Amino acid sequence: MDETSDGLHEAADRAANYIRGHGGPFDRARFAAVAGAGLPEAEADANGSTAALEPPEPQNPDGGWAAPWSGGASSLDATCFMLDQLSDLDDARTTANVSAALEFIEAAQSPDGTWREGQSDRTPDWLMPGSAPARAYLTANCARTLLVAKTAAEAVERAARALEWALDPHGRLPGPMVAHWLAARVFRETGRELAARRLLDVVGRVFDQLDTTDLAWFGSDTQPGDRWTKRIALRLAACQEPDGSWIDESGRPSALLTVTVCRVLLRA
Fold first, then answer.
1. Structure confidence at residue 5 (pLDDT)
2. Cα–Cα distance, 148 to 257 (Å, whole number)
3. Predicted structure pTM score
């Protein structure tokens, strides 16, 4: 192990102490899985009985999860976000019905291969149905989620074609930067290497402007051990807080984000 790897593992060790002290059962189980330490024993409830591990938010009957803005209705973006966390827990005992969540996403795909959120008067602008940036982002996010779960290969291929058609002559998507690294993973894993590299070139031009949350999610979609993953991990290690945590977009230490950062550090 070289000096750089030692430094990254030391950062993960500091994070472990933070997660043990400040994370909930779900965070601790995710970290144990990410760190390869084996999953902790299921924790007892107030009555002393052992319960299955519950995700941080309740799952809807249709298989999805609600977003803060969706009034309780399932959101594709929120469902992808929860499934990303659950993807660390391959063997955990959890109450989440992952198969139903994946079916919810697959069933929402449009015939042209894209995805769009359901209509709501509270849908944020960046997810607004009919918006080209929202369509590119959600299509990349949903396809990436199905791809990670190793399911719905035909849906992923339709999405990859739709994303490829959406590229401009400079290799850019009409969506936000996050859409570029999500789509790059979709392209890479569906055999579209040139398109993937062009998208990562776009991200590279603004790399120094990415915040901690961006870096954690970007590093979750790069290849283990490649130059991007190492570059992202070094930046993340440099902005770790003294208590071992990382600060999220709210300006507060976050156990959820800290686990996701460790996912990147340990893949570098």
1. 78
2. 19
3. 0.92
